[in-house]
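Limitations
The structure tokens in this dataset are predictions for the assembled complex, not deposited experimental models. Users should treat interface geometry with appropriate caution, especially where small molecules or nucleic acid strands are included. An illustrative entry is reproduced here so readers can see what is and is not provided.
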Amino acid sequence: MAQKSNVSREQTIIAIFLVIGVIFITRLFYIQVIDESYTLSANNNVLRYVTQYPARGLVYDRNGKLLVYNEAVYDLLVLPAQVKELDTVEFCELLQITVEGFRERLDKAKKYSRYKPSLFEKQISKETYGYLEEKMYRYKGFFVQPRTLRKYPKPIGAHLFGYVGEVTQGVIDKNPYYKSGDYIGISGIEKAYEEILRGKKGLKIKMVDVHNREVGSYAEGKYDTVSVTGEDLYLSIDGDLQEYGEMLMAGKMGSVVAIEPSTGEILAFLSSPTYDPNLLVGRVRGYNFKLLSEDPVKPLLNRALMGAYPPGSTFKMVNDLIGLQEGLLSLDTRYSCQGPGSSPIRCTHNHQSPLDVYVAIQQSCNPFHWQVFRSIINNAGHGGIRNNYVSWRNHVMSLGFGKKLGTDLQFELPGNIPSAETFDKIYGKGHWNSMTIRSLSIGQGEILVTPLQLANYAATLSNRGSYIEPHVVRAIGNQKTLDTKFKQNTSTINKEHFEVAVEGMRQVATLGTAKWYQIEGITMCGKTGTAENPHGDDHSLFMAFAPADNPKIAIAVVIENAGFGSTWALPIASLMIEKYLTGTVKRTEIEEKMKTTNLIQ
Amino acid sequence: MRERNNIFSNIDWQITTLYLVLVVMGWLNIYAAVYNEDYSSIFDITQSYGKQLIWILSSLFLALLILLTDARFFSTFAYLIYGLLIILLLVVLAVGTEISGSKSWFQIAGFGLQPAEFAKFATNLAIARFFSQQHLNLSLLKNRLFPLILMGIPAVLILLQNDTGSALVYSSFILVLYRMGLSGNFLLAGLLVILVAVSTLMVGTTYVLFLLIGLAGLLFFFMKRNRRNIVSLVGLLVLAIGFAYTVEVGVDRFLGDHQKARINVLLGKTIDLKGVGYNVNQSKIAIGSGGFFGKGYLNGTQTKYNFVPEQSTDFIFCTVGEEWGFLGSTVVIALFLMLLVRIVVLAERQRSDFSRVYGYGVAAILFFHFTINVGMTIGLVPVIGIPLPFFSYGGSSLWAFTILLFIFIKQDINRNALL
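Predicted assembly:
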């Protein structure tokens, strides 16, 4: 049997060989050609997509001084599928986290995806990264990604700059540019100019070996995209003035806004109490944010945009301007004042009577302005009280009150100039008149303005009737000026009438309520305000511009619950004008007093 | 001089060429698998590829020696060589060096030598010698048992060395026995048991049912259609289907979750990336990502960056799959099939029983290695660590396969001269 050649057995054996071959080739065809998942897994094995986060644009002041820059930190990412056994204790010690925290983080990452990297520990400092880097080869599945954080050389401008934080899911859903873990401007100019500051993310595809070591770039970088650094912003802010203002406002609640009248550029923009913007950066942000948001003096509130105050006496020129425009007030008009015995509004100032519009502004006479207001509202033959009020309101709003000014900053509030409908609702249609709403004549009652509006009002007065939408960024990059983007607004009141108001304000600063704070060699035009406040002590207000004939700066200062406008708001405004126009402050005594006084209980 | 002319004019160039092509391809793939830019010369003998070149050259020298040896030497001293290797297997058990869990190495002057590799051709020689006896009466039980003992001794010794893969190689002699008259039912039964069990667990009984019926149809088409055959075929089919259900129900009912999980990992139904499944998974990824044309020579990322373990030895086929793609893999498989078929064809033309049996032994051993090794890399066969003949890095295996093959080539050259 053994000797006999057995053809069928030979063929069977060959057939077995061939069957195996066919099975193998079929299987190979399936896994190599048909099933794509292996290619994907291979890429997951070897390719690491590293997002290249660009540094945000830098921020300079109007003189080219650096206000905001970036600092390098490192995010530690984890690819759970590649994590191998590691010395957890040593690893946790390096990162200063607990072993429990380690497990939590890893579990969270696994839950997200085993094959996609997720954030393990964010914003590791350069120093910690230095230690970590040497040992990275022992921590398979972990790798770092450089990021940048904001840094502020001086602790100023917190409300102006706003802050940067991680994107929320809501933003990610709406905007495909953002991925989990990206940073985004949340408030201030960081938010307003997010798209300019953020730059453009890049992507690097790197190859790693089984030990998680980088072994080069994929396809010689053919599919890499380069990140583009964010563009720099040049602010209209004067860094020195800003810093000086914040120093003066220390210990006071309120706001200062200064504007260059000819351009609408904001020179100083501050809200007090403030905080060091460095506090809301990086890993300490969450903790500090909580602390700040729980502080009863509300340091996070941007009072310059969101604080709404009755303008008090600073509003008096508005009624004069409307009276002049409507022909109901002239330079010859005289009203008498009975001082504290005046009715329906008392006068607290000691001055001559009867008096004209200049003296009325200079001495901030309440009865005079009540008479002017009454004449406007009661003006016969103009369609009645309600129509007169509507017309009055239109004039007021043309001066930038009761509406958003269209600044480039976020979260601006419109303030309030009550509409006729509001009074209809409160008193009933036809049941209200000038007497009912008499508080409006002296900037009280329902009127509310923001410090920005008050400063813009000063700028409008200095420009004799027009303003350019106030803004804080004057250029993007080094050339692109933005000033043309902001529109000029002209009020409904003729230019010549502003000369009357300005002259009154000049007298305020030379003869009237502000004469004690004149600046040597500079003529200032201003108006104090002491705003009654149903919640507590009066607010101290002052708005001004200088120099009188060639205005370079318009300013508004509001200090909450600080009493007379001339006591606190005026000296601070005066010092800031001096600082801005002359570069130094000679009245060091006043400066010292302002700096050191704490008005917050 | 006449003798030498005789050798090269009678040598079967098909087999020799196939051998050379496979060895060179293996070398190039080892270079690609462990490619290292710091040692970029393929001749660098500090690296595996440089060493493999030494192994290749020395193998060629061994081949030449065999060709120059008298053909009768191997049949004459078959039992002696066998006995010597058995002694070596025993010695290595006592004084051998343990490398990755297997106590199967002699460490000589920095080179490791694995007697288990050489025991294969020695056993093959002994079996061929046994079957070449004149008037061998295979109906006697002792004559049926003897070849089993010849295979069993080295298999057990190698098993004791903890080298399961190499021990399993001896089961491949079933092909030789089949050729020598063992009932095909043994072969079929063995194949069916494996096939049915694995496929049932992988795809479920429904598909297996179709598979079995298809297979039965195929057999029906090829075999002599007499009544007896048809009856046994139908019986077998019923038996197989019953077995399939038994396996499915048995695993489901009688195995614990833990054991079931293990089986599933083995079958690739669940992926355990860190444990048992890691090698196979990475290997499949490497091969699968090769695509139709492959990533190009030296461009394989998975193998080059060491994602596949043991890629120059047991998993060398990954490099082929990844860098040369479906096209290259098919070529390699085709080359192996050509070699196997050629060996069987040559074996059949032998006039001496010794040469024929030896030839079938060569084909069986190579076939087993090829099937298990390639099957393992593409996830069809459980991970059993045995090399791919002529391809895998390693001196012992290359030497042993060269000796195994060239003894047969030498027998073939002398097929006419012998009688």
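Some entries come with short summary sentences. For this one: The first strand of chain A starts at residue 47 and ends at 52.
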